[in-house]
């Protein structure tokens, strides 16, 4: 595309190059994006924060944090001010690389630079802390975001629910789920699936069935929800129920995926044929 523009004597601007870099990054072609970045700087064009952030985000998504750090240094050296989106990309990259302390340092840096963290900023950090079983710290950040006038969304609360469930706090998770409606946050299929899966794992199948029945009556369910319940029935040795639900799943237009088949195969290997 760039070659064609130059061939037709169309002079690309910084904005043009930024869009091309963003397009290549979103397509996973970071090499091509970097080539365009080097070309534009080589001909004297000055990248803006949109240009830098597009490339930075791709480095972070790929876990190439050394490259991301070098680019961040270049941003500062060139007098370009990182924005909230830039910091969110870096914080996400560090969290995915299990370097949560580094991500938390960036949050403090945002405050120092008088940048207001967004709901996305806090969602990234809360999710990482929950996955690292740092629930107390995650709840502290929930309070912090609320103190800054930011309203938690379903992503925020799903992360907390998942953390609670994985740390044997199922009753607390159920109470939080029930309270969501009062806070204006509507639970989604992910919310219910997190709780159903944990109930099945804790041998509380009856409660999971109640939630699934509610989803069925409201028309809110998916392959994952069905598979969770199939696994729950298999776990309790209710193989006829599991088979019945599998057929019901297909009748309702939901077709088994890899996880569904793996669940069935696992119980087949264990001598518990559900077919």
From TrEMBL:
Keywords carried by this UniProt record: Repeat
Keyword flag Repeat: yes
TM segment ranges: none
Coiled coil (residue ranges): none
Pfam families documented for this protein: PPR_2 (PF13041)
Repeat region (PPR), residues: 13-47, 48-82, 83-117, 118-152, 153-187, 222-256
Family per record: Belongs to the PPR family. P subfamily.
NCBIfam families: PPR
Protein name: Pentatricopeptide repeat-containing protein
Lineage: Eukaryota, Viridiplantae, Streptophyta, Embryophyta, Tracheophyta
């Amino acid at each position: 595309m760039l070659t064609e523009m130059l061939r037709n004597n169309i002079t690309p601007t910084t904005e043009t190059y930024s869009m091309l870099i963003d397009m290549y990054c979103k397509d996973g072609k970071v090499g091509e994006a970097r080539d365009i970045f080097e070309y534009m700087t080589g001909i004297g064009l000055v990248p803006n924060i949109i240009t830098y952030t597009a490339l930075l985000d791709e480095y972070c998504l790929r876990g190439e944090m050394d490259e991301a750090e070098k680019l961040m240094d270049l941003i500062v050296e060139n007098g370009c001010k990182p924005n909230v989106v830039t910091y969110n990309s870096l914080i996400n990259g560090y969290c995915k690389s299990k370097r949560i302390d580094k991500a938390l340092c960036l949050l403090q840096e945002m405050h120092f630079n008088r940048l207001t963290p967004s709901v996305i900023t806090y969602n990234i950090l809360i999710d990482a802390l929950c996955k690292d079983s740092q629930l107390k710290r995650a709840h502290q950040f929930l309070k912090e975001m609320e103190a800054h006038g930011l309203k938690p969304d379903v992503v925020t609360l799903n992360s907390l629910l998942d953390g609670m469930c994985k740390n044997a706090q199922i009753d607390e998770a159920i109470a939080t789920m029930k309270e969501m409606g009062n806070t204006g946050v509507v639970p989604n299929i992910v919310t219910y699936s997190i709780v159903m899966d944990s109930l099945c794992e804790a041998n509380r199948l009856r409660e999971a069935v109640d939630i699934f029945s509610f989803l069925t009556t409201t028309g809110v369910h998916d392959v994952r929800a069905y598979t969770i319940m199939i696994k729950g029935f298999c776990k309790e040795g209710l193989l006829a129920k599991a088979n019945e639900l599998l057929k019901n799943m297909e009748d309702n237009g939901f077709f088994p995926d890899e996880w569904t088949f793996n669940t069935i195969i696992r119980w087949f290997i264990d001598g518990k044929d559900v077919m």
